[in-house]
Design goal:
- The structure holds three protein chains of three kinds.
- By secondary structure, chain A is mainly alpha-helical.
- Chain A contains seven helices and no strands.
- Chain A is flat and about 70 Å long.
- The mean pLDDT of chain A is 90.
- Chain B has a domain of 145 residues: MetI-like (MetI-like fold), CATH 1.10.3720.
- In chain B, helix 1 packs antiparallel against helix 2 and helix 1 packs across helix 4.
- Chain C has nine helices and ten strands.
- The chains are: A mainly alpha, B mainly alpha, C alpha/beta.
- At the A-B interface, helix 2, helix 3, helix 6 and helix 7 of A face helix 3 and helix 9 of B.
- Chain A: It comes from Antarcticirhabdus aurantiaca.
- Chain A: This is Amino acid ABC transporter permease.
- Chain B: It comes from Antarcticirhabdus aurantiaca.
């Protein structure tokens, strides 16, 4: 390993890593909002809303993220949607990961719903109160975990926006390789930066998960 | 500007050729991912400690970094050490290895979950250790992990789009070619997306049928 | 003379897990065509003893012999592997949990051993499988997967699978313990039929009535030792040891 080279490229990698982090955070926030809406639609009493949500999830999960990105970024202007690479990137990724996140949330809810819901309803709780007091608190740890997994998948997916010209980790690494001809050093460093980002996400997820763990909570 | 699909039929041949390459790449990379995944899972579980440790770390690296970065590393790295592999094979192998890590992860858990009584029954008939793995334990683990490995293959299909970045003429790249002549990105990417969606649905259906048949092991 | 050589012989078998000794020096000799039942409370070591006959359990000391060949030969690595695989081909084993191969049909379950280990042709193996299925009363079930069978049917297939290797000895490890009561008889019937054909059998069981009916010799084990042994009449009807009496009282009253 060429230490001098590593020292020279480190600032570029660090700067690009911040962009990757930013892409991840903004997309994750969009994804959370989208997923909440999709889940609400899926549990709605209006059949057309449920169908729309199912169709949305199916289409998003059934097509490549890269094609969705190209459709938005290159095809958008045809519909009067002229977005910057960064904006196109986070919007596409947010709406994409939102579909996956909604499946995780729905799965978590369904996993506790059956018996619990019947018990609560038999006590006379309404539909919303049942959700609020019984289902969601129990589904929360599972939800957090699946949201965490999806955020990690998202953070790796951000590499794709390099293809529309956002200077994030992968783009930056590729440029550094063409200027230094040191693919192993450069990609190793970029890879380490991704692992660091994923490490941070897992840490946050674990902390949030722990805060939901009843065994660690003070008795009410 | 309104959408105008009138130019699409003129490029039908190009687009369908791209689709066929996408399907071919999915099959090839899928085969690599399953074969390597099985080998890695078996070596991790039953191999020497050092091999096992090393494989675990390598699998982690493949799962913790982006596919595109791995493809670039393979693409630039191989030529750096003097191995000149056509982009097509770089893409197939890179994609295959990436998903092999995920398959190995799933299969490792499935191998551990096979009832120890199965190996005992095979051993009591007189089957050797290796034959017991090959004929009884591995097939059962593969059947029980079929739904998840099938899901990985469906994800792999969608990730073949990334190979367009390496200049491999699959569906996305051929769509781009059509776009560069027609300036109709939305229409052609939409057609490409629709084709991916159809193949995706077909794979999901096939997986559902296969999973039902594989339920004998449950 | 080889006809007087015991089919299975255990000499001073000991087995420990760490400091816990589960078999404390067991001797047993089974003549060709004899049926020996091993009874005793759970944890007595009876299953461990049976499983050490084909070395699914490794013993700590003692000798195991099958028809004049030592089973636990002091070989290592590949040589031992080859030796023990050959030995196991000559011993059929039937497990409490059946352990049928779920990914194979009934036919394939029975045929895979003879084909892969004995080089039987597919046709010959198929014919043998069909004969054995007829014998255990499951003609026509060859194409089914195990998950389509009842417990009793599964166990009868497992017996057919073991018999397909044409073993010299059959080992039964609580073959009916996992079965619903109404399915026990169909398995016992097959075992009685084998007894009638003078198959050498070692049976670990908790069914005293069946043991009395079918065995030539009964071993009562407790705490890793043989407490009492002899003919079924002796051990089951007129036990001399207190521990045997206590065990039988508990089991016959149930």
């Amino acid at each position: 390993m060429d230490l001098e080279l590593l020292a020279r490229i480190a600032p570029f990698i660090a700067e690009a890593a911040l962009v990757t982090l930013e892409l991840t955070v903004v997309s994750a926030v969009i994804g959370l909002v989208v997923s909440a809406l999709v889940v609400l639609a899926r549990f709605s009493r209006l059949a057309p809303l449920r169908w729309a949500a199912v169709a949305y999830v199916s289409v998003i999960r059934g097509t490549p993220l890269l094609v969705q990105l190209f459709l938005v970024f290159f095809g958008g202007p045809q519909l009067g949607l002229d977005l910057s690479p960064f904006t196109a990137g986070v919007l596409t990724m947010g709406f994409n990961i939102g579909a996956y996140m909604s499946e995780g949330i729905r799965g978590a809810i369904l996993s506790v719903e059956r018996g619990q819901s019947e018990a609560a309803r038999s006590l006379g709780f309404g539909r919303l109160d049942t959700m609020r007091y019984f289902i969601l608190p129990q589904a929360a740890p599972l939800m957090v975990r699946s949201l965490g997994v999806n955020t990690i998948i998202l953070s790796k997916g951000t590499a794709l926006v390099s293809t529309v010209g956002v200077v994030e980790l992968t783009y930056s690494a590729q440029r550094l390789v063409t200027s230094t001809y040191k693919p192993f050093e450069v990609f190793a460093m970029a890879g380490a930066a991704y692992i660091l980002i994923i490490g941070i996400i897992s840490l946050i997820v674990r902390m949030v998960e722990a805060s939901f763990d009843p065994s660690r909570r003070a008795p009410a | 500007m309104m959408l105008d699909f009138s130019q699409v039929p003129g490029y039908g041949g190009l687009i369908l050729t791209g689709l066929l390459w996408t399907i071919l790449i999915t099959c090839l990379a899928g085969a690599v991912s399953i074969l390597l995944g099985v080998l890695a899972a078996v070596a991790t579980l039953y191999g020497p400690r050092l091999v096992s440790l090393l494989l675990r770390e390598v699998a982690f690296l493949f799962m913790a970094t982006p596919l595109l970065l791995q493809l670039y590393l393979l693409y630039y790295g191989l030529s750096q050490v003097g191995i000149l592999l056509p982009a097509f094979w770089t893409g197939v192998i890179g994609l295959g290895i990436h998903y092999a890590a995920y398959n190995a992860d799933i299969l490792g858990a499935a191998l551990k979950a096979v009832d120890p009584g199965q190996a005992e029954a095979a051993r009591s008939l007189g089957f050797a250790r290796g034959a017991t793995l090959l004929h009884f334990v591995i097939p059962q683990a593969m059947l029980s992990s079929l739904p998840q490995m099938g899901n990985n293959s469906i994800m792999l299909l969608k990730d073949t789009a990334v190979l367009s970045v390496l200049g491999i003429a699959e569906l996305v790249l051929n769509a781009q070619r059509a776009i560069s002549e027609t300036y109709r990105p939305f229409e052609f990417y939409l057609v490409a997306a629709a084709l991916y969606y159809i193949v995706n649905l077909a794979m999901e259906l096939a997986l559902k049928v296969a999973s039902r048949r594989a339920e004998v092991v449950r | 003379m080889s006809t007087q050589r015991p089919m299975v012989e255990l000499r001073n078998i000991r087995k420990s897990y760490g400091t816990l000794e589960v078999l404390k020096g067991i001797d047993l000799s089974v003549e060709r065509g004899r049926i020996v039942s091993i009874i005793g409370p759970s944890g007595s070591g009876k299953s461990t003893l049976l499983r050490s006959v084909n070395m699914l359990e490794e013993v700590s000391a003692g000798e195991i012999w099958l028809d004049g060949t030592q089973v636990n030969q002091p070989l290592s690595g590949r040589a031992f592997e080859r030796h023990i695989n050959g030995i196991r081909q000559a011993m059929g084993m039937v497990f409490q949990q059946f352990n049928l191969f779920p990914h194979l049909t009934v036919h394939q379950n029975i045929m895979i051993g003879p084909m892969r280990l004995k080089g039987l042709s597919k046709d010959a193996a198929r014919q043998r499988a069909d004969e054995l299925l007829a014998k255990v009363g499951l003609t026509g079930k060859g194409g089914s997967y195990p998950n389509r069978l009842s417990g009793g049917q599964k166990q009868r297939v497992a017996i057919a699978r073991a018999l397909a290797m044409q073993p010299k000895v059959m080992l039964f490890d609580e073959a009916t313990s996992a079965l619903d009561p109404e399915l026990v008889d169909e398995v016992n019937l097959v075992m009685k039929q084998l007894a009638g054909e003078h198959m050498t059998m070692l049976i670990v069981t908790h069914e005293m009535r069946f043991a009395a009916e079918v065995s030539d010799h009964v071993l009562f084990m407790d705490g890793g030792v043989v407490v009492e042994q002899g003919t079924p009449d002796r051990v089951l009807a007129n036990p001399t040891e207190d521990r045997t009496r206590a065990f039988l009282r508990k089991h016959l009253s149930n």
